[in-house]
């Protein structure tokens, strides 16, 4: 099978990091790139570049790109913008395929010099066949090859080595880093990710075309501030969305947001209504935050397609149940009154409805036995009146004194139930108001993630993710498209 175009961006055999100073007493962003690549186990040769030469972290530092003895496929530039035209000339002489311009100071600022520099760099690149990532961006992340821009995410020092099915195309570097942390903490890993900034050369349509053809990418997420070529993006998105789920967070839809986009990445934005109609036309999933990209991806990757919208919420706390009812209804999920035979079974399991609530949502206080709780979950999951079983845990509701002998045994029930329940079963860990509860939530989430469960931080986020998952699958079915 032929590799898709641009595959060389994600699988370079060698790279140079330009701007790595041997003086470690001063801030050095190029050194951070070098350290990240080294820690993540990049599978090719790495060449630090600085006019002073020398050695750093066990690597020989070369005075210029032309002094590197071997081939260089890929260059990361963390030097001032004014020095990059010379770097592009050196890259052309060296036969470099791609240059990532981390540096800012180009067309994103309202400055003639900055725009002129970007034009000059692009002219050299096009004359020599070099592709430019950026400027003003974090660049490429590919776990398979160890290509990364950070390897020090909290609590997960080795996660860059874990490949997965989510591809992310992000104009923002900061948002891409946040999304990596958020997704990996919930068990969603990446095939490829690119932060592309100003998109002076390669733009959102190029990366979308690539990820559509990439066999390792099963779901495509996008953070977009604006597009370079609306007609091309329209055609590219139509093809992509027919083939894979495309989840898009379009930022900058307000007047002030559009103004900020222009100063951030020199992008041309558009109105909220225009984008909403545009994305709906092609069955792209529109979301409103980076967290929601993860929420919807999680549902699509971890949960079976729901047969309908009939949802039961089971957990602890009458107030949480009321909130669940509102959140599900606002997300166009239905919470039907449980059939009389199901309620009778629940009464038989618990002996009484006193202190509980068996209508829907189901309030099942943790004073009962874990065996009763499992039987209740099994009864609800078996009902033909239910399509989605949503579990919710209000971790602060009973106080942390209940942690060992009350809450944790019920977590094990969920793990047991997950092996039995064949319907979608999103799990919500919420009401974490104290440091102890937040620590407990982190421990519980880790257990659930290892078991392959879809974990959400709120009832609303779980309900909205299920709604958008359903909308996507319903529209595919209406269009006669094959299942994923």
Can you walk through the features of this model?
The chain has 484 residues and is α/β, with parallel strands linked by helices. It has three domains: 7-133, 3-Layer(aba) Sandwich (Rossmann fold), CATH 3.40.50.720; 162-301, Rossmann fold (3-Layer(aba) Sandwich); 304-478, Succinyl-CoA synthetase domains (Rossmann fold, 3-Layer(aba) Sandwich). It has helices spanning 7-10, 29-40, 84-94, 112-128, 173-184, 204-213, 230-243, 255-265, 272-281, 290-302, 318-330, 340-350, 370-382, 403-418, 435-450, 459-478; strands spanning 14-18, 45-49, 55-56, 59-60, 74-77, 98-101, 131-133, 139-141, 163-170, 190-195, 219-224, 246-250, 285-287, 311-315, 357-358, 362-363, 388-394, 427-430, 455-456. 47% of the residues are buried.
- Main β-sheet, spatial strand arrangement: 8-10-9-11-12-13
Specify the oligomeric state.
single chain
Judged by helices, strands and strand pairing, the structural class is alpha/beta
Return residue spans where pLDDT drops below 50 for at least 5 consecutive residues: 153-158, 257-268
The CATH class of the largest domain is Alpha Beta
**Radius of gyration using CA atoms only:** 25 Å
| Strands, total number | 19
Question: Count of helical segments?
Answer: 16
Named at the architecture level, the CATH assignment of the largest domain is: 3-Layer(aba) Sandwich
Give the number of domains: 3
What is the average per-residue confidence, as pLDDT, rounded to a whole number? 87
Helix content: 40-55%
State the shape. elongated
Write the CATH fold name of the largest domain. Answer: Rossmann fold
């Amino acid at each position: 099978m032929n590799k898709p175009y641009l595959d060389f961006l994600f699988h370079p055999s060698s790279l140079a990091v330009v701007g790595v100073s041997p003086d470690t007493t001063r801030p050095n962003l190029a050194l951070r790139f070098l350290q990240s690549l080294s820690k993540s186990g990049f599978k090719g040769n790495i060449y630090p570049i600085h006019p002073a030469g020398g050695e750093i972290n066990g690597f020989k530092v070369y005075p210029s790109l032309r002094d590197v003895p071997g081939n260089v496929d890929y260059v990361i530039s963390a030097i001032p913008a004014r020095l990059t035209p010379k770097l592009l000339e050196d890259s052309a002489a060296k036969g470099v395929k791609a240059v990532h311009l981390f540096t800012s100071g180009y067309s994103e600022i309202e400055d003639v010099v900055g725009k002129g520099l970007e034009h000059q760099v692009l002219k050299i690149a096009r004359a020599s066949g070099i592709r430019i990532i950026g400027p003003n961006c974090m660049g490429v992340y590919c776990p398979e090859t160890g290509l990364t821009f950070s390897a020090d995410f909290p609590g997960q020092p080795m996660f860059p080595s874990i490949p997965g099915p989510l591809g992310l195309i992000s104009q923002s570097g900061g948002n891409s880093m946040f999304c990596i942390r958020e997704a990996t903490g919930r068990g969603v890993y990446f095939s490829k990710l690119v932060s592309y900034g100003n998109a002076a050369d390669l733009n959102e349509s190029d990366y979308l075309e690539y990820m559509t053809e990439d066999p390792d990418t099963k779901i495509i997420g996008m953070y977009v501030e604006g597009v370079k070529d609306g007609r091309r993006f329209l055609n590219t998105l139509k093809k992509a969305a027919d083939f894979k789920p495309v989840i898009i967070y379009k930022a900058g839809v307000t007047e002030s947001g559009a103004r900020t986009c222009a100063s951030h990445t020199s992008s041309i934005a558009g109105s909220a209504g225009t984008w909403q109609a545009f994305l709906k036309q092609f069955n792209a999933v529109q979301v409103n935050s980076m967290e929601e990209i993860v929420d919807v991806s999680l549902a699509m990757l971890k949960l079976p397609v729901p047969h309908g919208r009939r949802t039961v919420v089971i957990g602890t706390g009458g107030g949480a149940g009321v909130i669940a009812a509102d959140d599900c209804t606002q997300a166009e999920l239905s919470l039907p009154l449980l059939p009389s035979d199901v309620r009778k079974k629940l009464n038989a399991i618990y002996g009484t409805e006193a202190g509980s609530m068996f209508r829907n949502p189901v309030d099942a206080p943790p004073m009962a036995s874990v065996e009763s709780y499992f039987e209740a979950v099994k009864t609800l999951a078996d009902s033909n009146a239910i399509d989605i079983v949503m579990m919710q845990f209000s971790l602060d509701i009973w106080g942390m004194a209940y942690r060992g002998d009350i809450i944790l045994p019920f977590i094990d029930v969920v793990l047991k139930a997950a092996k039995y329940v064949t319907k979608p079963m999103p799990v919500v860990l919420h009401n974490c108001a104290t440091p102890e509860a937040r620590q407990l939530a982190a421990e519980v989430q880790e257990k659930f993630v290892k078991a392959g469960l879809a974990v959400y931080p709120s009832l609303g986020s779980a309900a909205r993710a299920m709604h958008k998952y359903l909308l996507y699958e319903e529209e595919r079915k209406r269009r006669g498209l094959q299942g994923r």
